[in-house]
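Try it yourself: sequence plus adenosine-5'-triphosphate, in.
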Amino acid sequence: MDILKKIQDHREQEEELKWEGTFAEYLELLKERPYLAQSAHSRVYNMIKSAGVDEDHDHKRYKFFDQDIYGLDEAMEKLVEEYFHPAARRLDVRKRILLLMGPVSGGKSTLVNLLKRGLEKYSHTEEGAVFAIKGCPMHEDPLHLIPQHLRKEFQEEYGIRIEGSLSPLNTMRVETEYGGRIEDVLVERIFFSEDKRTGIGTFSPSDPKSQDIADLTGSIDFSTIAQYGSESDPRAYRFDGELNKANRGMMEFQEMLKCDEKFLWHLLSLTQEGNFKAGRFALISADELIVAHTNEAEYRSFIANKKNEALHSRMIVMPVPYNLKVSQEERIYEKMIRESDIRDVHIAPHTLRVAAMFTILTRLKESKKASVDVLKKMRLYDGEILEGFSDVDVEELKKEHSDEGMSGIDPRYVINRISSTIIKKELTSINALDVLRSLKDGLGSHASISNEDKERYLDFISLARKEYDEIAKKEVQKAFVYSYEESAVTLMDNYLDNVEAYCNKAKLRDPLTGEELNPDERLMRSIEEQIGVSENAKKAFREEILIRISAYARKGKKFDYQSHERLREAIQKKLFADLKDVVKITTSTKTPDEQQLKKINEVVATLVDEHGYNSSSANELLKYVGSLLNR
Ligand SMILES: Nc1ncnc2c1ncn2[C@@H]1O[C@H](COP(=O)(O)OP(=O)(O)OP(=O)(O)O)[C@@H](O)[C@H]1O
Ligand SMILES: [Mg+2]
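Structure, out:
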């Protein structure tokens, strides 16, 4: 069986990666590959970088986040440039707790998981390999074995700086098991795994009365005190708290700001001096990334409390806002649906897009610029090119509100509404109208929406609905044209031939009869009128198009009907105008004749074959568009 074979392969690969040797042998390894001794933060940074970086203009896009985080390129760039990169270079930020702050369901946990899973994988690679003192519950860095007074020399020889001191347990083991010969201490390669509690930990607070600090820093193992004689013998201690287990990797601190203070104090010295106290022992050095997450309200009340000042100064807050791009939001829903139990339901094309439009509208803040309404802003943010706006304008818009993306509707709400509608109505297919209706109905019971916001949101529902109406009409009209692309190209070629003749004051030749003809003024005007080119402006318009064509030719680019925005619009409108009556009558008739029935079947087939509908959603669409056209 395939899967069993894979499991076996995997095991064999793991087996091959294993390494065990003495500390002396490990030092040999380090001579060739000094990067093996990198700090936890540096490993995280290198992992992120190793997935690839795209650079354009002055922005960097880190591909590491691509697979799971959509639309947050800028936030991720900030996170890497302002935290991971400087932390990797041992700058001070490394000592701070990374606090991700963002609205509910904005992807914070997803981000943390991505880092965890990434580290697990990376520790299996050559560059991300991690070595530890064998048998140490904290996977201690073998270099801690080097005594303090020799570290300067070591650094000169190896170029590696050592931080942290040997833990009480290993200090004792070196004496008892190795007779003080550190060069004989066994070192092994370790592989991060949250399940096996190696290098990845998660601490989540529970009831403060019953929760014990042991969860964080380990505890005395009373059953062994008799054996070792004393509570302060490190062998009688279980170094199995999350902070211990996450050493060398990362620890996620869930709900940190809700946590009881006594837990937080432990983090103070850890973040500042890189060590923490456990039981009755000397301080234990730890090298790990600590990530916590919170929402804005919780964070505000945390910093408002003076008592938290010390801790606050040891955190670095990084925003994880909502995505603000419609097309990325659509991808988020697609991903969430794939992972849910409604993945088999047919979702009509544009459904998720329209839902995403609504969601993004609720997240946007109004611009101060009079020429930019929310819809325009939504389009510009999504990368659409709108006449009169440049990239610089978009950058400016983004700078207007620093807290944009920190409020609005969350993706989980949308998915929950979609699934509950499907389940309640036992639907096998769902369309944009169903979803908008369901989003609207749910607003009343959404816990965190104020009445004022509700009013705004209702407006956004109707805006999204209007957008959908346009999309729906276009879709049906396109399906009515026998072959839309082909017809558009033919019509444009025809138009351009006439324009060329007109501008050059030349004649056209009839391809069939060879007869000379004057440019077809009626045809040209019928197209130009679609986009409001007046009789007076027609000459300039035609000349401009010819100039564009020759500019394209000079650059060796092909001019097609997509190359001129307004011309494309005119051609499309002309095609649709010619069809309007047919579409209107065919889609709205209750008793179609044979001819109409044939057309309807053809259109449904096109929608199904080429546009991703099924026959029921295609028929629904036709009916809806029929009613729109007859309004
Ligand atoms: N920008 C995004 N890219 C990809 N998926 C996202 C994004 N934002 C939210 N999601 C999806 O939304 C869901 C909720 O996200 P997640 O649990 O990571 O949010 P959170 O910020 O941890 O929320 P909470 O505050 O409720 O803990 C997940 O399924 C996640 O995949
Ligand atoms: Mg979460």
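One thing you can check immediately is this: The pocket of adenosine-5'-triphosphate (ligand 1) is lined by residues 68-72, 102, 104-110, 295, 323, 332, 336, 411-412 (CB under 6 Å).
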